[in-house]
Amino acid sequence: MLTADGHIVTLRPVRDTDAAALTDLYLNATEQSLHLRFFSLGTSQIADEVARLTRRAATDHHAVLAQDRGCVIGVASYERLDDPTTAEFAVLVADAWHGRGVGTLLLEQLAADARRRGIEELIGDVLVGNTMMLRVAAGVAASIKHDSGTAVVRVPTALSDHAIAAQDARERLAEEHSLRPLLAPHSVAVVGAGRSPGGIGHEVLRNIATHGFTGRVYAVNPHAAEVAGCLSAPTVSALPETVDLVVVAVPAPAVASVLHDAGACGVRAAVILTAGFSETGNEALQRELLGIARGYGMRLVGPNCLGVLNSDPSIRMAATFASDLPSGEGGLAVATQSGAVGIAVLDHAHRAGLGVSTFVSLGNKADISGNDLLSYWFDDPATRAVALYLESFGNPRKFARVARAVARRKPVLAVKGGRSVGGQRAGASHTAAAASPVVAVDSLFAQAGVIRVDGLGELLDTARMLVDQPLPAGDRVGIVGNAGGLNVLAADAAEAAGLTVPDISPIDLGAGATPAALGRAIRELASVGGLDAVVAIFGATRSNDPPEAVAQIAAATDDFPDLPVAAVLVGLPEPPAFLGKRRAPVYPLPEQAMRALGHAAGYAAWQQRPLGQRPNLSNVDTERARSALKDAGDGWLPWPVASEVLAAYGIPVLPSTVVNGLDQAVAAATRAGYPVVLKAADPNLVHKTELRAVRLGLTDAGAVAEAYTAIAAALKQENPQVLVQPMRSGGVEMVAGVVHDPLFGSLVMTGLGGIHTDLLGDRAFQLLPVTDVDASAMWRRLRGAKLLTGYRAASTSDTAALEDVLLRLGRLAEDFPQIAELDLNPLLVFPHGAVAVDIKLRIAAIGTEPDPTARALRS
What we know:
CATH class of the domain at 10-158: Alpha Beta
Distance between the termini: 10 Å
CATH superfamily of the domain at 10-158: Gcn5-related N-acetyltransferase (GNAT)
Largest sheet: 7 strands, mixed
Strand order of the largest sheet: 1-2-3-4-5-7-6
CATH architecture of the domain at 10-158: 3-Layer(aba) Sandwich
Radius of gyration: 32 Å
Helix content: 25-40%
């Protein structure tokens, strides 16, 4: 984990073998620290305290310690009280580590363990003079009640939105400090820099030296005193100073030795360019590198990466062997898992005049990930937009939260590689069948405000719009130009991109329009109220003075700095990358300009949308649901158990009776009141309608008997279990459900239900947590949303009731992640209320999954 100043420390449970180290921790504490801990002076309590901390693990107590390079620097513990939902906690941090966030890390870890054991609150008595501990407790959203010379501190273990936000803010600050030696070093050494040009190490060294690095740069080569004009030493430890960053370009078997040497002399960061690790199946060697780095408190980029770049004028570091580097500073930060993709991005950015603030090639992501970099870029003033190329997620649930925080400040664009690879789940519910990995990624990006683009070209086109232009206030775009056909295509592309072209455009000036006329038309169109962006299109010919036309477009667009503008220039042998002082981006085709504008408008709308909140839901009885699931076991649950779980969360379900024979079916139907429905009750059956195991509109006992006999024949069973329900008609047939993904967590789904579920595939998914804004947006995203709002004089449906069901499903999924699949299909939504008519619910054991709130580094 990272301390507040970016130092790496290790947190782990206390073991019985830690007695000596813990004794030293207490004996080395000042009298003041011991007094604040024990409320008395002296060392007589230390032996008993160490014995308490090193007891055998049990559910009523727990202790966790913090280590720096094997040395214990802090310890925290709790003891469960008479009220089993509470526990008393205590914390001690070595005096030399006060004020660096170690106590906060220990308390966070302690609370997380207590939460897993059913403890809802940690309680501690703290002396009023212990201001440092009081600040630590307040930082993790504790309540503090003062009483004469002491204060009672209560730390809820449940993570509220406020507590998570505070924790995220601490983590961002820690990441900034931790990554500074990597991205803003004062000194760099390239290990493996050969004397001959062409080698990776040599070329990286030359890039650093010639790109204008403002710090000191060294080579590490045992066979040379100087490489490419830079001082060289045989080892990192033999350099004249301890450098901040080492760039490693030696063969894979030698990398571990280099890291040991660098770590031992205090190097804080390393970029490992060398390949031959996990990408070739050598996981053990990569794990060894990470273990070395953790032992010395180093951060790693790579291995198998292209390097890093920072164009800040005060740094100007190009620690990469890429050949085409962006010239000058810029506003786009880039992270990519693929070195080849990184080369393409840098090359196109260079040719398009797009400035790159920071570039990081992540490689195998042994340590530093996209989440870490997003935290760093959150407050980076040089970064106005972030571009990501991702092939995998280590912790997608945490990514969603971190990316959303960044996207509230600046755009985040992403290309997700491997989109076409995947497949349908093996589940037997409609929700699970529809929730492919692509759907999960799309849902994640949509919730986080990440602009998902389909390729590198679209990413760079959109980045050029977002980095240098203001955000559109809406979706209305005006089009003006001298090329009629291109104007028409631009209007078509605008609509496809989710934009609106008002009646005042497109304005076609004709091929013979003079440059001055083009400039006047742009100004007139931009001056008209009701436009949120303008696209100027110019087709060059021999008769229309292309250089002057381009100059007029640039001058006209400069007059409207608050309006997003793009230009489409065709027919020019070497068109500029941008126009005017405002750097209006130039595109070769109207489709590119409109896609970029569409993404910008969509992002602007998302940014203005409220985040929403998790509402307080009435009639939620978690213990009732837990009791229903206690003896259920894994697999598909029978109707009585499934309906009991839903009832515990206030989700309306049609009253139903499970019967085991014809006479019981008739009796149940009579009690329910005709007409009724009979359907097979076997929870393992899929598509019961296709099996002819559903019979509707049964109006008397004879019809029920006939239906039961037919279902028995269809299932080839003598006395099958059958569900008897009153017949409900009317309302809009919807589907709602939950599916759990071990990487992404649970997703809530809604869409058109009944037979339309698979036929039309009109669905919307949402990752947890589901807020009130999310629930409203889910059904509104459906193509068939108008069916709920009175389409063609139909009754308006109770969308508030639908949203309530979605919110309750989301809370149920949060509380019980073992719900692997849950389908309510159909969920009938009436003008007043909603009710689930059919239920499928499957339970599965949950394995080790990423913790979305964990501050832990990769291990």
